Amino acid sequence: MRSVATLGVDIGTSSSKGVLVDASGDVLATATRSHTVSRPRPGWVEMDADVWWDEFVAIARELSDSAFAGGVDIRAVGVSGMGPCVLLADEHDRPVRPAILYGVDTRSGRQIDYLTASLGSAEMLRRGGSVLTSQAAGAKVRWVAEEEPEAYARARRLYMPSSWLVRHLTGSYVLDHHSASQCTPMYDVDACGWYAPWASLCAPGIDLPRLQWADQVAGFVTPAAAARTGLPAGLPVTTGTIDAWAEAISVNAHGVGDLMLMYGSTMFLVNTVDQPVTEPSLWGPVGALRGTRSLAGGMSTTGALAGWISDLVGAGHVDLLTEAAASRPGSNGLLVLPYFAGERTPIMDPDARGVVAGLTLSHTRGDLYRAALEATAFGVRHNIETMMDAGATIDRVVAVGGGTQGDLWPQIVSDVTGRDQVVPTHTVGASYGGAMLAARATGTDTSAWNPPAGRTIADPERRERYDELYALYRRLYAGTVDVTHALTEIQHDDARSPLPAASRA
User: Is 106 part of any domain?
Assistant: First the structure.
């Protein structure tokens, strides 16, 4: 007798990942395709949307072959992706420009200022759950309308990675409610629907997608998509959602009082609340599942910062982790601000920049690497404290993502925050959450999937040193913000006026 499984695929910032999961929640096979984003100007982060579909096809074919060889029938497909992103396409689903990525892209400052002045921060917070920041997809749609009118004139539809995959797989033009609620200010979190007056202000002429919840079936694999992917025609495909919320589902961290920590290129924090909690320096979208609300935060560079250091010093992460573990807590007096691509929550400063303070000729690359990990932990603590001050309840912290594969990074986060973390059996992440959503949509009970496998326990002996450094971390931003903002303006000026070729060294 052939066994059954569901397929989950996630389009991430640095890679696309797929996973084949059986009806008991066991991972049968995985597949990954790496990619890079484009940074054509400071503050701009883009991606060619064709990569999303091409990598899905490659992953689906690889996992379909694995399923066939193993005597496994794929019963449903679940998708997710980084977000909120803005992909505008014409009536034939041809992108009018590269997709603009989530809050790490900070280009829409002028549109944020205009919409905030026009609509009012308090009213946007009340209706949309969040104020306007670089995370807001609605402001980025308006940026395209104002800054690239020729491209916008061809635009008719709005996609994100998950909905782009759904469109290619099924022909359905649909977006999940959570993703829509990050299109601030276009969505009403209480009414759970597009708010037409503000949507038309941000996205005039766009035929907005119909809305469903992440675990609802969006459509079925078409014969044309089956021929491309190797998947059987007629398979149900769920609506899907943004990766961080799929990750929370993947580790069963979507109950009231749960906080999911996503260790990836960026750090994301999702706290599920029993009633709406709003805070101007955080996000308050609806959850991925019907009837849920979230209080969320996100840091712009965490794993990406570690990757930058790895590339800079020409050493692999395994070696650097070993050297960082040999450095003492506090990195021998080294302190980093991790704002290398601006920062999202809670400082909401797209013009913030990274700072390395305390460097001496005695410091090693292990010290620097550890200081970067500690900086991300200080950012997590800042977000958690802001959530608690806003009225959130955090009873359980669950870790997920590639950064949990080693012990050091989660341990530093626990030591800095004073909070233990549950580590689940499977830390594959959002792709596993997609497979779980697909299983639920087809009637499979997933309540026993992905049980806890261990815990990261905070070490109280390190708390005093980290409390001291955290206070300095908070002071360091306040003490350097004027300088870093001035440097950011120079970066923008240089990008607008590149050095003539003859003058380049």
Answer: yes
Q: Structure tokens of 168?
A: 């290619």
Which residues, at least 6 apart from 96, have a Cβ–Cβ distance to it below 8 Å?
88, 89, 90, 144, 151, 152, 154, 155
- Report the domain count for the chain: 1
Q: For the stretch 242-264, what's the b/e string if a residue is b when 16 or more beta carbons lie within 10 angstroms of its beta carbon?
A: bbbbbbbbbbbbbeeebbbbbbb
Contact indicator for 249, 437 with CB cutoff of 8 Å: yes
- Give domain status of residue 296, yes or no: no
DSSP bridge partners of 293:
273, 286
Distance CA 74, CA 243 (A): 22
DSSP for 236-271?
A: EEE--EEHHHHHHHHTT--STTEEEEEESSSEEEEE
The pLDDT value recorded for residue 503 is 52
CATH number at residue 58: 3.30.420.40
Neighbours of 386 (CB within 10 A): 20
Output the pLDDT for position 429: 86
Q: What count of other Cβ atoms lies within 10 Å of the Cβ of residue 111?
A: 22
How many Cα atoms sit within 13 Å of 96 on the Cβ side? 23
d(CA 35, CA 99): 14
Give the residue from 24, 21, 1 showing the smallest Cα distance to 9: 21
Which 8-state DSSP code applies to residue 41?
Answer: S
Quick one: DSSP state of residue 350?
A: T
Domain with 171 in it? 3-245
DSSP structural state of residue 339: -
Cα–Cα distance, 301 to 435 (Å, whole number) = 27
Q: What is the pLDDT of residue 496?
A: 79
Q: Do 335 and 472 form a contact (C-beta atoms < 8 A)?
A: yes
Inside any domain, residue 153: yes
SS3 content of the chain, % helix, strand, coil (to 5): 40, 20, 35
Whether 418 maps to a domain, the answer reads: no
pLDDT at 417: 98
- C-beta neighbour count of 230 within 10 angstroms: 17
Task: Give the CA angle between residues 393, 280, 394 to the nearest 5°.
Answer: 10
Phi, psi for 143 (deg, rounded to 5): -60, -45
Low-confidence ranges of the chain (pLDDT < 70): 1, 498-505
Q: Which two tokens mark 335? A: 């302190």
